[in-house]
Amino acid sequence: MGNLNVEGSGVRAPGCDESILISIKKMLGLDANYDAYNTDIIVFINSAMMTLQQLGVGPTEGFVVTGLHEMWSDFLPSDTMLEGVKSYIYLCVKMVFDPPTSSYVMESMKAQKEELEWRIREQAEFYPGDGTRLGYFEQLAADEEAAKSELKGEILETEAGIVRIVSVRDTADGDD
Questions:
Q1: From CA 64, how far away is CA 40, in angstroms rounded?
Q2: What is the domain range of residue 121?
């Protein structure tokens, strides 16, 4: 297995160029060469990836695993969220492909999956990939027209991440 040089970081990210299907199969305890369940696992991986895309992770046009050739680096070009994404996809697949017999274990897996969803959403929303953290209003202020539309007002200034609104217009009066 090789390594991928993460954009601009100089850090080598092990596992980025590993096959998505093979790594999930390994986490499930299946041999990489055993292909009897590949179709089932691929369907469950793609369902998890659809959810991730809705959370703001991965290519905007979506991503589909069709076999052994789709790599983690194809889905996420940097490693900022890779391990959390791998864990999330594994949990999604495990819960439907090979669910635990214990209800306690299943509840624990559900809680872990929900926490990962929250963390992944936070990472995708507030860390746009360049290492900076943007707050909600800072994101809106970056595009003044979007901010006016969203806030239904005019932006006076932004200072230290705080957006000050001069006036709020009623959208019914047609002044938008």
A1: 14
A2: 3-126
pLDDT in tens, 85-108: 999 999 999 999 999 999 999 999
- What is the domain count for the chain? 2
Interval 116-165: pLDDT, tens? 999 988 887 766 554 445 554 555 555 555 555 555 555 555 555 555 55
Report H helices in 37-152.
Answer: 38-54, 72-75, 82-97, 103-126, 136-142, 144-151
The verdict on 87 and 148 lying in the same domain is no
| Token reading at 126 | 């507030």
With beta carbons less than 8 A apart as the criterion, state whether 66 and 11 touch.
no
Same domain, 47 and 97: yes
| Contact (CB, 8 A) for 79 and 6 | yes
DSSP for residue 172: G
Considering the entire predicted model, what is its pTM? 0.66
Q: Which of 115, 116, 94, 119 is nearest to 105 (CA)?
A: 94
What's at 58, amino acid-wise? G
DSSP state of 101: S
In a domain, 131, yes or no: no
